[in-house]
Design brief:
The protein is about 45% helix and about 25% strand. The protein has six helices and seven strands. The strands form two sheets. The chain has a five-stranded mixed beta sheet with strand order 2-4-5-7-6, with helices on one face. Strands 1-3 form a two-stranded antiparallel sheet. A hairpin with a 2-residue loop joins strand 4 and strand 5. The protein starts with a helix and ends with a strand.
Length: about 180
């Protein structure tokens, strides 16, 4: 109904405003504020991928063999994985799955999101996490965007005491790798 559409558009506008505010904090060198609690990263990821499957179809593979508990901001980590998974769908091959792997060892957790398809050049990789930066491929794709998604990913990961990097080659595709301590500071 019309009321539901209006509420969804308000929520979308609210998220866009929050993204702009957060991007400006990051640009100013501030860490994003986090409210951390005990949560399970595998459950957060499973629920997110189920939601994304409803939108994009059965395109996602989750590789996480056991619960991965930690002290994090569940909503912010969902934001990270959602952004990386959506980008993998937007800019990856339509014919291969997006693989999300989560590994935990020695109090560190690694989340990787991989897609086949067009790769990112070294120059593109170097500028990916800058605010308002979009690759030539992203612009040419016709996909709308402000160039804030990966800036926000980086900001959320750093606020958790972690780091994010990208590996991309013509033959192996593109993988974003997030490394986090199991307990956010």
């Amino acid at each position: 109904t019309t009321g539901i559409k209006v509420l969804k558009n308000i929520d979308r506008a609210d998220m866009m405003i929050q993204n702009l505010l957060d991007a400006n904090r990051i640009r100013a060198g501030e860490l994003l504020p986090l409210v951390v609690s005990s949560c399970d990263l595998r459950t957060i990821t499973q629920e997110l991928l189920e939601d994304l499957t409803a939108v994009h179809g059965n395109r996602f593979l989750l590789r996480a063999t056991k619960p991965i508990p930690g002290l994090w901001s569940a909503g912010q980590l969902r934001r990270v994985i959602e952004n990386l998974a959506n980008n993998a769908i937007k800019y990856g091959s339509d014919y291969t799955p997006v693989t999300v792997k989560i590994l935990a060892e020695k109090m560190l957790v690694t989340i990787s999101v991989h897609n086949q398809g067009s790769y990112l050049t070294k120059d593109e990789q170097d500028g990916l996490f800058r605010p308002y930066s979009r690759t030539a491929q992203a612009i040419a794709s016709g996909e709308r965007g402000w160039g804030l998604g990966l800036t926000l990913v980086c900001g959320v990961v750093e606020a958790h005491g972690g780091k994010v990097q990208v590996e991309s080659t013509r033959t192996q595709g593109t993988t974003f790798i997030v490394t986090l301590p199991q307990k956010a500071p």
